[in-house]
């Protein structure tokens, strides 16, 4: 029925851009604090609102790239929930699996000099995975505190449908639950997407990308992908370690960069492209997203992907 069903919480992002802040880093440069004056009024330069959530971003982006998509999510019986449903329909994402509850999730994204800090509210949910018969890909991403229930339901479904490919991008609560809770999902995952900090949380810190990829692969995924912001992306498929840099495009705001990379990567594989091409598609799509505000505005169609590729180029990844 569907090429891809995305599973995860949807939200409304309020995106704020500010200048009156600073970043303080400890001796370890990967541990930095975003600081504003306590009990002060902070001037906001711009304000935008967007439908968001990792799974929603993926469903919309996959639809734009030509996949027939649906989204399993729970939104509120409120104006924000109505807006999410309307946006999904506008983007040709099926709302067949969208359920309605009391409240819609919300996030506030603070953009400071091109990097973002996100405050996230997850409404309490009781997940109940619908029957997804006929799907080819499932993209499982950020859900709330009660995600262990949907983990079990998803694993039971995948056991009955061994040909379905699972893309896994663990969210905040999934990572907090730790490796023991994630292990059954990772063992059944076809491709896992994490950023470098998330990889360190899963397999242990203070290692290089090659080590992270190897350790992630031992947990079960056939293909492992690590994104590292301006340093580019890394993949391992059990045989080859590949690295790709970013495109020389301006950075406006980075929300959704990882989602857009994963979206285009899976779309490329779905359409029969090799991993090298999938990395290129992901790099181009994420470059487009960070040139605009919010996680959706820059998501590309196939024509847009080709045009941006032609404009900026996309060198093949290299072995590392």
User: Mind telling me the CATH superfamily name?
Assistant: Ribokinase
The largest sheet, given as strand count, sense and whether it forms a barrel, is: 11 strands, mixed
State the secondary-structure class: alpha/beta
- CATH architecture annotation: 3-Layer(aba) Sandwich
Radius of gyration: 19 Å
The CATH class is identified as Alpha Beta
What does it look like?
This protein is α/β, with parallel strands linked by helices. It has a single domain (about 5-10, about 55-105, about 125-320), classed as Ribokinase (UDP-N-acetylmuramoyl-L-alanine:D-glutamate ligase, 3-Layer(aba) Sandwich), CATH 3.40.1190. It is about 35% helix and about 25% strand. The protein has helices at about 55-65, 80-90, 145-160, 170-175, 180-190, 195-205, 210-220, 255-270, 275-290, 300-310; strands at about 5, 10-15, 20-25, 30-35, 45-50, 70-75, 95, 100, 105-110, 115-120, 135-140, 165-170, 190-195, 225, 235, 240-245, 320. The strands form three sheets. Strands 1, 6, 7, 8, 11, 12, 13, 14, 15, 16 and 17 form an eleven-stranded mixed β-sheet that branches. Helix 3 (about 145-160) links the parallel strand 11 and strand 12. The protein is globular, with a radius of gyration of 19 Å. It starts with a strand and ends with a strand. The model has no long low-confidence stretch (mean pLDDT about 95).
């Amino acid at each position: 029925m569907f090429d891809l069903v995305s599973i995860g919480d949807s939200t409304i992002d309020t995106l704020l851009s500010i200048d009156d802040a600073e970043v303080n880093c400890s001796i370890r440069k990967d541990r930095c604090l975003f600081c504003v004056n306590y009990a002060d009024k902070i001037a906001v330069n711009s304000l935008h609102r967007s439908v968001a959530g990792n799974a929603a971003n993926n469903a919309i982006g996959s639809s734009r790239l030509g996949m027939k998509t649906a989204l399993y999510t729970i939104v509120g019986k409120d104006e924000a929930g109505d807006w999410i449903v309307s946006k999904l329909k506008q983007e040709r994402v099926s709302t067949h699996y969208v359920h309605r509850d009391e409240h819609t999730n919300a996030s506030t994204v603070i953009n400071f000099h091109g990097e973002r800090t996100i405050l996230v509210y997850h409404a309490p949910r009781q997940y109940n995975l619908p029957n997804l018969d006929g799907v080819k890909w499932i993209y499982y991403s950020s859900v709330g505190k009660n995600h262990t229930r949907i983990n079990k339901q998803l694993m039971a479904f995948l056991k009955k449908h061994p040909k379905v490919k699972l893309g896994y991008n663990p969210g905040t609560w999934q990572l907090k639950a730790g490796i023991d809770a994630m292990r059954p999902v990772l063992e059944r995952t076809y491709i896992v997407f994490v950023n470098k900090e998330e990889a360190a949380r899963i397999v242990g810190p203070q290692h290089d990308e090659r080590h992270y990829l190897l350790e992630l692969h031992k947990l079960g995924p056939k293909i492992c992908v690590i994104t590292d912001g301006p340093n580019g992306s890394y993949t391992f498929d059990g045989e080859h370690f590949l690295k790709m840099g970013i495109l020389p495009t301006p950075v406006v705001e980075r929300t959704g960069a990882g989602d857009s990379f994963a979206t285009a990567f899976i779309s490329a594989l779905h359409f029969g492209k090799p991993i090298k091409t999938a990395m290129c598609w992901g790099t181009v799509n994420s470059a487009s997203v960070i040139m605009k505000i919010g996680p959706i505005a820059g998501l590309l169609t196939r024509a847009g992907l080709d045009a941006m590729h032609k404009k900026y180029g996309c060198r093949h990844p290299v072995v590392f």
